[in-house]
Amino acid sequence: MLEAILEKLGQNLIRATSGEEALRYVLEQEFAVILMDVQMPRMDGFEAATLIRQRERSRHIPIIFITAFSTNDSFVFKGYSLGAVDYLLKPVDPVILTSKVSVFVELFKQTAKVKQQAAQLIRMNIELRKSEERFRSLSACSPVGIFLLNIDGQCTYTNPRCQTICGFTFAESLGKGWIQFLHPDDRERAIADWLNVIQNQQQFSTEYRFCTPKGEMRWTYVRSSPLFSDNEALIGHVGTVEDITEHKEAVIMRERLIREQAARQQAEAVNRMKDEFLAIVSHELRTPLNSILGWSKILIANQVDEATKARALETIERNAKSQAKLIEDILDISRVIRGKLRLTIQPLDLAALINGVLEATRPLAEAKNIHIKTSLDPAIPKVYGDLERLRQVIWNLISNAIKFTPADGMVEVKLEQVEMTNDEGRMTNDTPSRSGIANDEGRMTNDNTLHFALRTSHFAQVTIIDTGIGIHPDFIPHVFEHFRQADSTSTRAFGGLGLGLAIAHHLVNLHNGTITVASEGENKGATFTVRLPLAKTPVVVIES
């Protein structure tokens, strides 16, 4: 009858025909409710209920007694005292029975659901505790510093390694306290960096220096990434800090060693060049001296005719002048190095000066059948400079062009006026010196650096073009350096000390001009260009 009534609930119904059988089922399965008749064979309902309540697993299963016997108060009280939740009298009302059982079935389901959720929550709490423990362990043992920032850029966490690297405590690092431990030169940049990171929500990496309370400076490499919630909302930033002090010190040491090595190599190169220069000086001075001594002995012997005597005197004079020129070059380069060149400024006619040099060098050109082509603008205004020093510059350039041009070649000399912008026309003396010069109003400059206070952008330009041996592109930047030569054999082959261009460069700079060189390569000739300012007022003297 009970099965027929409850079957429509669609639940699993278990029938037990005795108290012993009911106890066996209770031990094996879980039940939402037990419907138990008070009167049963061998073991009545009260005794069965007592045993059910004694077992932990079945202690809380609701029991509804069904009876057709006494319903007096003592009988009912006994049933409730044994754990019954209700009494139903036979004959049972199907509606009431179904209703009561449905309530307990639903309660069982809800209880099971709550237990499942509770078990799940317990598991989640366990996993959370394990995760937190793992985070604490990883954070504490991490070889790199870790920090967390909120969306406002305030520090909310630093791990022990971060605190050790940066030199602050956990409390000192919170908020914006970590900024105070930055190197003073890095603070402003760090604040700007993090404002930009927070606004753009982007990954970031850079280097900062931290100053510890012990006075140590540590280089750090800092990286960060934005933190997002499950719904893609920004919740802060996570970052790492690595101590790269040893690496930076190694890099600095390496750069210092490289600089020292480069300086040592440069010094060795300079010494080699000086040694080579001294060897050249010795050779160049000895060559004319040998000729002078040789002819002098012949003349002393007084056993030569008049033609031989004239030849001897001419040879002695030529070699004496050559030696004097060598000595003058040596003295000039010494003055350049010590900043002791003396200049006397006056108005000069460059066209006349160049013509004079061309006349003096014409025999050299004719000896090699070199054609000299000239294009000199006679209308160019005068320049202000030292006559002898500018003649020395022009002589050096023209004689070099003739010297390094093979027979039947050509040398072209041009003089023209050019106009340049202020930036193009403004020159500085890039040859080290302690020179002084009056400006265009006659006053000496205070910075002890020679320059003209120009009021013009007009220049006289002298261009000397030859078809000679040319210059290798790699040597172009070193043409005007002291003691530098593209090939020492050229000095032996063509004579001279190789100082002329260095002296010319310095002299042109002293006149606030420029001298440049261009060549398409070896055996393709060279072009030297000198620009001198056309000043409106004379520059008064000078000692440089």
Describe the structure.
- This protein is of the alpha+beta class.
- The chain folds into four domains: 2-118, Rossmann fold; 142-243, 2-Layer Sandwich (Beta-Lactamase); 251-320, Helix Hairpins, CATH 1.10.287; 339-533, 2-Layer Sandwich (Heat Shock Protein 90).
- It is built from 15 helices and 15 strands.
- The strands form four sheets. The chain has a five-stranded antiparallel β-sheet, sandwiched between helices. A five-stranded mixed β-sheet has the order 10-12-13-15-14. A three-stranded parallel β-sheet has the order 1-2-3, with helices on one face.
- Strand 6 and strand 7 form a beta hairpin.
- Helix 2 runs parallel beside helix 3 and helix 11 runs parallel beside helix 12 (387-403).
- It is rod-shaped, with a radius of gyration of 54 Å.
- The chain starts with a helix and ends in an 11-residue tail after the last strand.
- The relative contact order is 0.06.
Count, helices: 15
- Cα-based radius of gyration, to the nearest Å: 54 Å
Whole-number count of domains: 4
Average pLDDT score = 80
Distance between the ends = 133 Å
Gross morphology is rod-shaped
**Under the CATH scheme, which class of the largest domain?**
Alpha Beta
Q: What name goes with the CATH superfamily of the largest domain?
A: Histidine kinase-like ATPase, C-terminal domain
Examine the secondary-structure arrangement and name the CATH architecture of the largest domain. 2-Layer Sandwich
Uncertain parts? 422-456, 486-496, 537-544
Strand elements, count? 15
Q: Please report which band the strand proportion falls in: under 5%, 5-15%, 15-25%, 25-35%, 35-45% or over 45%.
A: 15-25%
Task: Work out the helicity level.
Answer: 40-55%
Report the biggest beta sheet as strand number plus sense, adding barrel if it closes. 5 strands, antiparallel
Order of helices and strands: HHEHEHEHEEHHHEEEHHEHEEHEHEHHEE
The largest sheet has its strands arranged as 5-4-8-7-6
Helix/strand class: alpha+beta
The CATH topology annotation of the largest domain reads as Heat Shock Protein 90
